[in-house]
Amino acid sequence: MRLINNVLKHDIYKSNVSDKTNNEFNIAFGTDDNYARGMAAGILSIIINNPEIKFIFHVFATLNNPANSDRIAQIAQMHDTIINVYQIDDAIFHDLPKTSAYPKSIYLRLIIPEILHDLSRVLYVDSDVICLGDISGLINLDLAESVIAAVHDIGTHVPERIRTLGLVHNKYFNSGVILYDVEKWLKADMFNQLARILTRRKGIFLFPDQDALNIVLDGKVRAIANKWNLLYDMGKMTDDIPENTLLLHFAGHVKPWQSTARHRLVETYLVYDRQSPWANEPLDDPSTKKEMRLDSKLLLKNAGILTPDNKLKNDITQEEFQFIEDTFNANSDDSVLQQVYILTLKIQGIVLHNQGEFREAAVRLRKCLAVSPDSPELLYILGCSLYSANDHEEAIQAWKNAVELRANFIEPLTVLTEALCRQERFDEALMYAQQALAVQPDNLSLIKAMAFILYGQGRYQESLDYYSRALEIAPDSAELRADYGQVLLRLENLEKGFKEKE
């Protein structure tokens, strides 16, 4: 396959590049518009921390925003370097697996040796990696018979990936930093091997490009130290990085150029971002619903409101609640914030209700319902608070609304029946009692309520039948026997009635 035909455009950006004492080092990136800023910081971090090395950068891109291309050109003009930008026709990846989390641009790393076939070796670096020191040790690294050098992955997913992918050497590497032996790669026809596996075995991939690379390169990888690709997830990790780290990989969904990233390592990244053509640009806001959800979780974790395993803590302070409310009001379309806001209001409402602060509880629950009006659970809890605050009519209406949303919701059906009985609104009470008994036919309190309703309507024989059913469940209840006797008296069965009342 002639992959060179998929290079739509090749631009070379350079300044007056001076001669440097050491060998030149070719470094490649794969990027799209979403990662261009991170890549720029990565390029600058390499240049700044390695002033004696002559770098030639190769950017394989699917860029649609001309401003990003212009900014990449500015980096070459501002620094003593060369940057080649290859605009790739991503139609070549049309048949390969892709998702919102893993777009076509992940496959750019697979074609680098094919396009740069005249080079002996090239280092590929992900666009979310920054350099923290001298990387000259990779220039002449002996690969022996290996096709690439890479760092073993350390994630909890590794054992499962090894089993699922059938890796006989029991090793799984991360594809964020790869040192290619170009000649060996081309000789083994790696790209076509990868394309076949990716199209024929789609169902087994968790990280499509990385998984496929591990399959075709099983036993052909020289393992290098973690310092060459230190994997760090800012959404989960808080540890300090080792002092010998040379390439820091911001793996995971949280990236340091995002406005909602809250981690001390963001400052490490910003050292280079502030020297880039993006220096005067605000950090990126989340652009997709998934990013919004992840950023919201991170915000709430950093505020101590969500636990590391995404559970809402029980003892929310007023200050923390205000933080949740303010954050939600600023991002009301965010589903994670919405869920946390609703859950927090609900918890606060229940706590206030249990403390006897019924009106304050109702205020919280009404706010909750303003966001989630179709929640029968919230309507039921609100009704309980309102009834305890002596707002009986509003409570009854809240319970009616809950039942309209969920016809078999037994809790509001039960309290609604009882509340209407107390007001001697027997016709309404009958309807809800029948509905409740259809859900729980042996519920003693509902059977008693039904007997009371029928008695109130003057339907004494039917009332007696329900009291009989109640006595079958609770034969030793003195209260039930007294009520049963009262009905008998109404039916003019005086002798038996007096006996039951006694």
Number of helices: 20
pLDDT < 50 stretches: none
**Alpha-carbon Rg, integer:** 35 Å
Mean pLDDT rating: 87
Shape: elongated
Query: Which strand order spans the largest sheet, edge to edge or round the barrel?
Result: 1-4-3-2-5-8-7-9
What distance lies between the first and last C-alpha atoms, to the nearest angstrom? 100 Å
SS class: alpha/beta
Main beta-sheet annotation: 8 strands, mixed
Number of strands: 11
Helix content: 40-55%
Strand content: 5-15%
Question: Could you please describe the fold and organization of this structure?
Answer:
With 502 residues, the protein is of the alpha/beta class. The chain has helices at 36-49, 66-78, 108-115, 158-165, 182-187, 190-200, 208-216, 265-273, 289-302, 318-330, 335-354, 358-371, 376-388, 392-405, 410-422, 426-439, 444-456, 460-473, 478-490, 494-501; strands spanning 7-14, 24-32, 54-62, 82-88, 121-125, 129-131, 148-150, 177-181, 221-223, 230-231, 247-249. It has an eight-stranded mixed sheet with strand order 1-4-3-2-5-8-7-9, with helices on both faces. A three-stranded mixed sheet has the order 6-11-10. It starts with 6 loop residues before the first strand and ends with a helix. The model has no long low-confidence stretch (mean pLDDT 87).
